[in-house]
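STRUCTURE:
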C-alpha cells in the first residue's frame, strides 16, 4: 500500500435515545499502520468499530475508508476484512466449507479460494482441522476460524474486535504472530483489545477512549513519554551510601517527585520533568561523590498511562 490514510473518523457520535454511547470520536489510521483501540468495558470500543464497518448507523459524523465515505459508496468496504464481537461460525460447517462459502460471496473463483483457504488456515494453525465440523471446536479454535474468514480475501485493511479473547496462552501467542506477519505484507490494522501488552507488542499507535470520548491518541512511545504523572524511575546503585544532605539537594531539583533510600547503597528517584531537567538530576547524582556503580531508568508504561487516563472521577 502506498502512503495515505486508510481510516478516517470525524466527530463520530452514536445516541440511543437519551444515552450517548460515543461522542465526537476522531481517529485517523494511516495506511500500513497498526493502531490499538483501548478503553474500559462500556467505553464505546465495539460501538466505534461497528460504525466504522457499517454494522450500525451513527447519529452523526463522517467515516472514510481509503478516502471513500462509507455512506455514499457501497464499495467502501470491499478491501476490508473484519471480525466484530466474535461472530459464531456455522457449527455444522467445516473450516474448509465455510471459507469456500465466504470466498464465493467475495466473488473469488474456485482455484483462488482453494489457495487462499490453505494459506489462511495454515496462518491461524487450523489447517489440520479443515475437514472437521466446527461444532466440536473450542471457543479459541472457532475464533481462529473467524480470523481466517477475515483474512481470506487478502484485504489491505483489517479491523478486529478483541481477537484473542477466550484463547489459551498458546493460542494468543499464535494469533499475535499471525497479526505481526501482516506487517511484512504492508497491511493496516485497527484492533480493539483489553490486553495492553498486546497493543505494546503489535501497535505503533493507540487511541484510548473513556465514557465514549477519546482521551488520548497518537504514537505509543510519544504518548507514554508525554505522560507527566507517570514519569520515570531512576534507580542508582552506589559504592558508598549517599548522604542525607545529597538526597535533600536532589529532592529539591525541578522535576523530582521524590527520592528515597532502598538499601544502604541504592537510591530511587521518581522524576517527571523535561529532558533538560533530567540532565541536571543526573549531574547532581554524579556530584554526590558516592561512586556510581549503576543507574537504571524505568520509563512510564502504556499500562500506567492507561490507568491515569481512564481513572474514574477524572
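SEQUENCE:
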Amino acid at each position: 500500500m502506498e502512503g495515505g490514510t486508510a481510516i478516517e473518523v470525524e466527530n463520530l457520535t452514536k445516541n440511543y435515545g437519551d444515552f450517548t454511547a460515543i461522542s465526537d470520536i476522531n481517529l485517523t489510521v494511516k495506511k500500513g499502520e497498526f493502531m490499538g483501540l483501548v478503553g474500559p468495558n462500556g467505553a464505546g470500543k465495539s460501538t466505534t468499530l461497528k460504525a466504522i464497518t457499517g454494522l450500525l448507523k451513527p447519529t452523526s459524523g463522517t467515516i472514510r475508508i481509503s478516502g471513500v465515505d462509507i455512506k455514499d459508496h457501497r464499495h467502501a468496504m470491499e478491501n476490508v476484512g473484519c471480525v466484530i464481537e466474535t461472530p459464531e461460525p456455522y457449527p455444522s460447517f467445516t473450516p474448509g466449507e465455510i471459507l469456500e462459502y465466504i470466498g464465493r460471496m467475495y466473488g473469488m473463483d474456485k482455484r483462488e479460494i482453494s489457495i487462499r483457504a490453505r494459506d489462511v488456515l495454515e496462518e491461524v494453525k487450523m489447517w489440520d482441522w479443515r475437514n472437521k465440523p466446527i461444532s466440536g471446536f473450542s471457543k479459541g479454535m472457532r475464533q481462529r476460524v473467524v480470523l481466517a474468514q477475515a483474512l481470506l480475501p487478502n484485504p489491505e485493511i483489517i479491523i478486529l474486535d478483541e481477537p484473542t479473547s477466550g484463547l489459551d496462552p498458546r493460542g494468543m501467542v499464535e494469533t499475535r504472530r499471525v497479526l505481526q506477519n501482516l506487517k511484512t505484507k504492508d497491511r493496516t490494522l485497527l484492533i480493539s483489545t483489553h490486553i495492553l501488552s498486546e497493543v505494546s507488542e503489535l501497535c505503533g499507535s493507540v487511541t484510548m477512549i473513556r465514557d465514549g470520548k477519546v482521551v488520548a491518541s497518537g504514537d505509543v512511545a510519544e504518548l507514554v513519554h508525554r505522560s507527566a504523572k507517570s514519569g520515570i524511575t531512576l534507580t542508582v546503585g552506589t559504592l558508598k551510601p549517599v548522604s542525607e544532605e545529597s538526597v535533600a539537594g536532589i529532592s529539591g531539583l525541578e522535576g523530582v517527585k521524590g527520592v528515597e533510600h532502598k538499601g544502604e547503597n541504592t537510591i530511587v528517584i521518581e522524576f517527571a520533568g523535561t529532558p533538560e531537567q533530567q540532565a541536571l538530576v543526573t549531574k547532581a547524582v554524579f556530584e554526590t561523590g558516592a561512586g556510581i556503580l549503576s543507574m537504571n531508568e524505568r520509563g512510564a508504561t502504556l499500562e500506567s498511562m492507561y490507568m491515569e487516563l481512564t481513572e474514574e472521577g477524572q
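REMARK: The first helix runs from residue 45 to 52.
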